[in-house]
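Following up on my earlier message about zinc ion. Here are the inputs again, as you asked, copied directly from the submission form:
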Amino acid sequence: MTKTKHVERFAPSPTGLLHLGHAFSVLAAYDAARDAGGEFLLRIEDIDFNRSKPEFETQIYDDLKWLGLSWPEPVLRQSDRRGAYDAALQTLWDKKHMFPCTCTRKDIAFAAAPQEGGDPLVGPDGIIYPGTCRNNDLPTAIPETALRLNLDNITQTDFTFTDLIHGTVNFTLSDVQNTIGNVMIARKDIGISYHLAVVLDDAFQGVTHVTRGVDLFEATKIHVVLQHVLGLPTPIYRHHRLIRDENGKRLAKRDDARSIQSYRANGMSPDDVRTLISLAQ
Ligand code: GLU
Ligand code: ZN
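Thanks, got it. Here's what our run produced:
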């Protein structure tokens, strides 16, 4: 039996500068692909056309080359994948795995507020959707509204994925319903969401191993459910620790002082960056 080639990817969004956290992810993915004699792919996740900027994309290529990385060209850009996204949306719609949602953020916060007071439950995408539009009649064609994942007519109840750091992760459909909920599959403004795009693109590119931060661990459960519904393979995941600043705070995109660009400007070498990452707590 031939062994499947190990394929890793790094999938940054060109909405800001790459920082140390990105360097950690990309070097981990790159090194793993190299050690396995596999392939490393770059994908530009520019579906959010309101926030993606060409200058950030250029900077991503420049920073990654400076780190010593290379990848096959041309890179896959999500903005070129509209046709594939629309086809998947149609499939999900035809199988009644989505429902239109016209709730505003305010509506959601109001409907999700516990009657006994306190804060609403929060999942990987923020407040867990309280289900307001879930039982509305479905129009025949996909409407121009936001679309959410309908979990009600999925028959499989038990799911699993392998995480090279966290081991075998088992979860149920009701865990997803209770702790994640009816996530957005297509946003009204951009007509797609991160969750659907990432699942389609990882499958399209033949990605076998997904290396990314543990902040996406819960979201992976949605990705596994989507893979099941769409008949796509589930890759092996590796959700690594997050790089934090000296106060223990997560690095954010706006944290320009820790951008790779600013380390370069301060005369650091790629090896210095590798050292920083392994020392950073
Ligand atoms: N574009 C996403 C990000 O930059 C990719 C996350 C992932 O690796 O799935 O956060
Ligand atoms: Zn709604």
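One observation from looking it over: The mean pLDDT is 94. Hope that helps, and feel free to reply on this thread.
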